[in-house]
Write a structure and sequence with these properties.
Layout (H helix, E strand, L loop, with lengths): L18 H14 L3 H14 L4 H13 L3 H14 L4 H14 L2 H15 L3 H14 L2 H16 L4 H29 L1
Length: about 190
């Protein structure tokens, strides 16, 4: 008796996805909402396949930042900035993360880089002014006021202008208070 052999139905061969395809898949999940794990997995896969995939690193940093995982976010953003040092958003986001980690010096450094690379990054100017104010000192106050005046006078958003006006008034009040204290100790 002959043995009848059945051949399986044709199975389509699927090649593995490329880094770019993983990234696009992550973007499609991002647009669908509610797929946080899938989004991160797709972007992570893209960086594993192509460690120089800047946008995947940036997106991973944003995911970590949105979940308040500052250390992880800083690592992702540092990778992104290493690949594109002149990318203003990556520098700004890194400044925000370092501010949350309490490293004001690095937050200032990356705020400055964001401003240098874009020129009109109003959020970065506002953050830098706030950081300089927190560090204190007359020269820092003057630089903070300079950045705030640019935010107030140029094309930034209404909310950002209002915040800049409030911080500017606070800095001016602080300077006035310090001057009064100095003059009262002299007398």
């Amino acid at each position: 008796m002959e043995k009848i052999t059945r051949f399986p139905k044709k199975v389509k061969y699927r090649r593995p996805l490329t880094a770019s395809e993983w990234f696009q898949k992550g973007l499609s999940f991002e647009n669908a909402r509610g797929h946080e794990q899938d989004i991160a997995s797709c972007f992570r896969e893209a960086t594993l396949l192509d460690p120089k995939f800047f946008m995947a690193w940036l997106k991973l940093g944003i995911i970590e930042q949105n979940h308040y995982r500052w250390e992880n976010a800083s690592m992702k953003y540092l990778e992104a900035v290493k690949l594109r040092p002149a990318h203003s958003e990556a520098n700004f986001r890194l400044a925000q993360v370092f501010e949350n980690l309490g490293d004001i010096v690095l937050a200032i450094k990356y705020s400055r880089k964001a401003i240098e690379t874009s020129g009109t990054y109003w959020e970065a100017r506002s953050l830098l002014a706030n950081l300089l104010y927190r560090l204190g000192g007359r020269h820092r106050f003057v630089e903070a006021l300079t950045h705030l005046n640019l935010v107030i006078s140029d094309g930034s958003s209404h909310v950002l202008r209002r915040e800049a006006l409030i911080l500017s008034a606070e800095i001016r009040q602080s300077i006035t208070t310090r001057l009064l204290l100095v003059s009262s100790t002299i007398q």
